[in-house]
Amino acid sequence: MLTLHHLNDSRSQRILWLLEELGTPYEMRRYQRDVETRLAPPELKEVHPLGKSPVITDGDRTIAESGAIVDYIIRSYGKDAMMPPPGSADYEAYNEWLHYAEGSAMLPLMLNLYVGRLKEAGAPLHPRIDSELANHLGYVDRALQGREFFVGASLTGADIQMSFVGEMAKVFGRLGPYRNLAAWLERMHARPAFQRSVAKGGPYRFA
């Protein structure tokens, strides 16, 4: 059976949400961040050398990286749900969002997090970070204009993968100008499967 190695307050929440949306049988092993350092416990390195989450095991397979996990679960267990037909225009857009979330959108958000910890020493970097945040959040917001989901007329893995981008922007107080993104995130969090994922995964500060 597929096992999700779930770290609290992490990207693995969206994998738990995906599993709940699909109704895929799974087991969950919980890991807790250190309350002071907020780092993952060393036990996760016994699952994958990076010691990060999300990571899944499925038989003799161990898969890390959110996009790879979303893709694997949908292809293996989705039964043609939550993914456009390969070769279609929607599929290419879907695949782009899967990569864009972590490959581009998360970079300025993570820089905002870590540079913020430098306090005054990080001040010279904030204008560039703010510019990139506006660039990416504006791009995402425009993509959601008049749309309920990122691709097509129903939930796909693109929405799952992009959820952490919206959640981080919300935590940083950056969603104000981006009404389409804010409304989309509210819709995603209202879904019964997302609510179940939080109930099963434990308190989630980004919800």
From TrEMBL:
One of its GO terms (cellular component) is cytoplasm. Keywords: Transferase. It catalyses: RX + glutathione = an S-substituted glutathione + a halide anion + H(+). GO terms for molecular function: glutathione transferase activity; peroxidase activity. The keyword Transferase applies. It holds the Pfam family GST_N. Residues 1-81 form the GST N-terminal domain. Residues 87-207 form the GST C-terminal domain. Its EC number is 2.5.1.18. It is an enzyme of class 2 (transferase). Transmembrane segments: none annotated. The keyword Transferase applies. InterPro entries: Glutathione-S-Trfase_C-like, Glutathione-S-Trfase_C_sf, Glutathione_S-Trfase, Glutathione_S-Trfase_N, GST_C, Thioredoxin-like_sf. It comes from the Bacteria. Belongs to the GST superfamily. This is glutathione transferase.
